[in-house]
């Protein structure tokens, strides 16, 4: 099963993608997590991506597409995957579609997690992220067991640089201009599904599993 998560920054794509990955036994592939891991390790890719990410801009398509295609070519992606944060532009979606078609494959579901901008701004300020393992928390909705420490790997939690309020607004603008057109793109291909992302995480997940089946 090949699934794409669509939705604004902070809509809960990562939260739902992790739950999908666990339930259906497929890898969770997040371009944002790949970039953040590279930034943390000080790689050349990380240095380049950071310049864009800190401003709330998209990392250029050439770079992003290469990384994503490398990742989904790995063995663990053979039986499918859930993509979180990719594609984010029409050109990215077209490259992915062409690459899949070359192998006789296609995307099965594009799930749009709908959340209005007002809710997003409130959510982001409360998010805390682990840059080591990619786990995310929310100071009210999903607090870690021990304040400021990741439950999974014990590292310190941080407020992502791009979760500062002025950058969140930029990310929302970029989303509306460059990423939202993907909703029509996948609707035309008959694979678009929409869930109400303002509900509790468990209710959003129930809507997702109703689409994907058990
Ligand atoms: P990325 O890491 O993908 O960030 P994003 O899309 O901006 O999305 P977020 O991770 O912020 O939000 P999310 O939807 O995953 O929400 P989450 O589940 O954490 O990308 C970062 C940057 O990398 C981009 O800006 C860009 O520069 C670059 N990049 C990445 N991919 C790229 C690409 N393909 N092309 C070009 N550039 C790319 O939830 C948010 C918070 O809300 C959490 O605290 C969570 O606990 C809480 N929450 C979740 N669900 C609920 C709920 N139902 N109710 C209450 N709280 C909830
Ligand atoms: Mg995310």
Brief descriptors of the model:
single chain, about 210 residues, alpha/beta, Rossmann fold, five-stranded parallel β-sheet, 7 strands, globular, binds BIS(adenosine)-5'-pentaphosphate, binds magnesium ion
Question: Brief overview, please?
Answer:
The protein is α/β, with parallel strands linked by helices. It has helices spanning 13-24, 31-40, 44-53, 61-72, 90-102, 117-126, 165-179, 181-188, 201-212; strands spanning 2-6, 28-30, 81-84, 109-114, 127-129, 136-138, 192-196.
Task: Describe this protein's structure.
There is one protein chain. The chain is of the alpha/beta class and 214 residues long. It has a single domain (2-115, 164-212), classed as Rossmann fold (3-Layer(aba) Sandwich). It contains 9 helices and 7 strands; from the N terminus they run βαβαααβαβαββααβα. The strands form 2 sheets. The protein has a 5-stranded parallel β-sheet, with helices on both faces. A two-stranded antiparallel ribbon has the order 5-6. Helix 1 crosses helix 9 and helix 4 runs parallel beside helix 5 (90-102). It starts with a strand and ends with a helix. Bound molecules: BIS(adenosine)-5'-pentaphosphate (AP5) and magnesium ion. BIS(adenosine)-5'-pentaphosphate (AP5) binds at residues 7, 9-15, 30-32, 35, 52-53, 56-59, 64, 85-86, 88, 92, 123, 126-127, 136, 138, 141-142, 162, 171, 197, 199-201, 204.
